[in-house]
TrEMBL record, chains A, B:
Annotated signal peptide: none
Species of the source: Labrys miyagiensis
One Pfam match: D-ser_dehydrat
UniProt keyword Lyase present: yes
Keywords assigned: Lyase
Full protein name: Alanine racemase
SMART domains documented for this protein: D-ser_dehydrat
Family listed: Belongs to the DSD1 family.
Amino acid sequence: MAHPETRETDILKAGTVGALATPALLLDKNRLDRNLARLSSRMAARGVALRSHMKTAKSIEVARRAYPSGPGPITVSTLAEAEYFALHGFRDMTYAVGVAPQTATRAVHLRKAGIDLKVLLDSPEQVAILGEAGRAAGVVASAFIEIDCDGHRSGLTTSDPKLIAVAAELAKAGIKLAGVLTHAGESYSLCTPEALVAAAENERAVAVAAAETLRAAGHECPAVSVGSTPTAHFAEDLTGVTEMRAGVYMFFDLVMLGVGVCTADDIAISVLATVIGAKPEKGWIFVDAGWMALSRDRGTAAQRIDQGYGLVCDPSGKLYPDLIVSQANQEHGILAIRSRSAATLPALPIGTKVRILPNHACATASQHELYNVVSAGSDAIEALWPRMRGW
Amino acid sequence: MAHPETRETDILKAGTVGALATPALLLDKNRLDRNLARLSSRMAARGVALRSHMKTAKSIEVARRAYPSGPGPITVSTLAEAEYFALHGFRDMTYAVGVAPQTATRAVHLRKAGIDLKVLLDSPEQVAILGEAGRAAGVVASAFIEIDCDGHRSGLTTSDPKLIAVAAELAKAGIKLAGVLTHAGESYSLCTPEALVAAAENERAVAVAAAETLRAAGHECPAVSVGSTPTAHFAEDLTGVTEMRAGVYMFFDLVMLGVGVCTADDIAISVLATVIGAKPEKGWIFVDAGWMALSRDRGTAAQRIDQGYGLVCDPSGKLYPDLIVSQANQEHGILAIRSRSAATLPALPIGTKVRILPNHACATASQHELYNVVSAGSDAIEALWPRMRGW
């Protein structure tokens, strides 16, 4: 099925990077396409479906590039995302946040409207809530059981007797068991290929074992869903896994650089900023991008290389050696040379434009209304792709 | 002059807190009004104008409550704010971020449209840029010289010879010198009344000295503008100061609680969230408010009491003892008892609503589209006040 034609972005007028009001979010289309192709070909080679997570991009235009032949299976982090992508033709989606009474009601209404929306749960209480919502709406709900593979967040361990109990409750409540779902959240804190390969294998093994436990108890467990951007790129064996979830892989960011999943040249989004002053005696250059444009995320603070609030490039994307956003106020960023570096502060007169690579693509992109889409080597803004937000 | 009638919010339908989709931003109108009255009466008693900073609230409805008798003098952090408040009848504003070529052009266009917009600068380069923009637009620009009172950010020190040089350049370029402006950024890291009184006095003394230096050199320097929420509340003497700037005082937050400017009962905004699970063996309760709803701000991490990603209340606003948001993923928050506390985790079944007080009001509010306005003791949402965003 082709994507329906709802290109509301055609009405927006594009221009040049040089003429953009700053701060502004840039998206490098070539890097995006390369990142999309890298993971989708990796999964295709392993026969595993890629259920991309839309929480990073939150954009129908990006989703269309991720699924060029038509709406594919997606993951969403909010029901507002589910509704937005449903309006744009996506049908097969998983809402990967534990379900509660109000979200259960809203989710079954989407199911009633023909959207194959699966929800997530890990307790008999949630089964009762979802069963009640499904009965009230007159639809059969569908749920993943969340599995905990690394103690990172919610979910049941494979050995927890509640695993079979929850599956039994689902059956009694007339809810479809979609499968098991786990997320190797721990992988974001790793930084060696060996550790990432091991985390991916653990994620796979735990999910498959949970599915086998359920199947041995007589429950159908069609899907075995795993995923995080690091494990998606380092998994060597995906036997038993039916689908991979990942979101930040589309854009990448400095945290993923620190983990070792990408290079700086793969990072597809950046914040364009303008130099507004300097304090040479302190080694400071001021730009008009503070935490409102960059987000407060300091995910690299715990990594081997602390990137401050971001790494600084010239407008063409070339990195300034060791120049980072060392501090951020609401609308001010302070550029400085990383501590213990021998690099010198570049001369950047007032009005100079810079591009800042973000720590965390999900957080930085969410500070902006839209993507200014650019291609390497060109000053033209080819398109403006709006982002959705809210819950 | 009365506020023009542009109440677009009347078209929005309000409901009850109990029926709100979560996460959602609540604004307690009683607390807001109390906070507004506290600082405006403090300034009125000292004969100092209050030029409220709109970067925190970004809402015309909040601005109208801050200036009940009609549009007053405001500070803005972006030109999008300047344009938004201008459209709603505000005329006297200061854009408190250093000016650069594109913002100079946009600012003088606002001046040409009748808005008394002052910009900020601290270098001869910026004077040249602003002068050029003013000539091109055929208007007389107006600028504050930024003064550095505590080494926190940009600005000139009183003894810097550039101070008089910049004033002379302004005169030559035909730009009006609005005055001097400083911000005691250091005050956010303080936590005793003595230190705050001293920071306020330093802010005042440096600003007044800068103005006197300019006047002694023959420059008119009408405004002496100081401000930060902590110093605004602790200044004992404001001799020579003509106006006070503050923004977060409208809502307050946990950082301000740690500084000692407010009590938890003064914090006017909170994020309503729903319990979606638990992991009792780890002492964890999961809610559907992660950093997307709370922001990544960890401003209390450097304070004596680290509030994690926020302090947790019941829906009526009553604090649970030592219950904080200890971790935050994009759409998940993990509630836990603060370390080294003897408090016990409350029983909060799935579906329970909680209210989370934010670390940083500016950052948390910016994650939301609108304020759900409530009053103490009532479940009714009295109004929906949209927020503006972007640059």
